[in-house]
TrEMBL record:
Organism expressing this protein natively: Feifania hominis
Residues noted as binding Mg(2+) in the record, renumbered to the chain: D8, D10, E168, D169
Annotated site location: Important for catalytic activity and assists the phosphoryl transfer reaction to Asp8 by balancing charge and orienting the reacting groups: S113, K144
Listed Gene3D superfamilies: HAD superfamily/HAD-like, Putative phosphatase, domain 2
Keywords: Carbohydrate metabolism, Coiled coil, Isomerase, Magnesium, Metal-binding, Phosphoprotein
EC number annotated for this UniProt entry: 5.4.2.6
Domain of life per record: Bacteria
Keyword Transmembrane found: no
Active-site feature positions: D8 (nucleophile), D10 (proton donor/acceptor)
Protein name: Beta-phosphoglucomutase
Length: 220
């Protein structure tokens, strides 16, 4: 059994990929840089500045550090405007019911996200105060696949990594969990990741895993 579950945010608790895409796309179009959905999928779980570097691989010229800061800020302004469209309707029944079930069973729940906008998103969808710990882009110096964001979440909970399960949709997040000594459940893009302890299709599968009713995948 696990004493806590640390959830990635984007792609796990809710879906903001399309907003990230629209915001980066506006910035890229203005700069005349080619950008599409397939490049966007490489940005999953990656920090803002690292995402910008991936987008600039297609740029026709080099950008100074100050110009990069300005582009990232421009994208974030557009993104934050789009986030204002989010509401409790963006929280699925499956996620809401599972979180409640875990809390009712006495399992602690935490967020481990690369995003500096994590708290805004949690407030928009109405679950900010459900969590026992929030570790996000604001309190880390190294982005996933570095385990820092999850190690800090476990630290706030006062638990060892071995007592926590990490839930992730990105390969970088599964690697971070693995390297930090956490068991993990991979979903979405990370569903087939063989470094993950479990693979899940539906969120409610977490109840059985956390409450000790389900076996691990093969050796990891
Ligand atoms: C999320 C997204 C990434 C995004 C990153 C930083 O990570 O998956 O695409 O680049 O946050 O976001 P922001 O620009 O808001 O700081 P996660 O870890 O929640 O999946
Ligand atoms: Mg994610």
């Amino acid at each position: 059994n696990y004493q806590a579950v640390i959830f990635d945010l984007d792609g796990v608790i809710c879906h903001t990929d399309n907003y990230h895409y629209q915001a980066w796309k506006q910035m890229a179009d203005r700069e005349g840089i080619y950008f599409d959905e397939s490049i966007n999928s490489r940005l999953r779980g990656v920090s803002r500045m690292a995402s910008l570097e991936i987008i600039l691989e297609r740029a026709q010229r080099t950008y100074t550090a100050a110009e990069k800061e300005a582009l990232a800020a421009e994208k974030n302004e557009i993104y934050r405007q789009l986030l204002m469209n989010m509401s409790p309707a963006d929280l699925s029944q499956d996620v809401a019911a599972t979180l409640r079930q875990l809390k009712d069973a006495g399992v602690k729940i935490a967020i481990g996200s690369s995003s500096r906008n994590a708290k805004t998103i949690l407030r928009q969808i109405g679950i900010f105060d459900w969590f026992d710990a929030i570790s996000d882009g604001e309190n880390i110096t190294r982005s996933k696949p570095d385990p820092e964001v999850f190690v800090k979440a476990a630290g706030i909970l006062g638990l060892a990594p071995s007592a926590c399960l990490v839930v992730e949709d990105a390969d970088a997040g599964i690697r971070a969990a693995h390297d930090g000594g956490f068991h993990s459940a991979g979903m979405g893009d990370a569903c087939g990741n063989d470094e993950a302890t479990y693979s899940i299709i539906a969120f409610h599968e977490l109840s059985d895993i956390v409450l000790g009713k389900r076996m691990q995948n093969g050796p990891v």
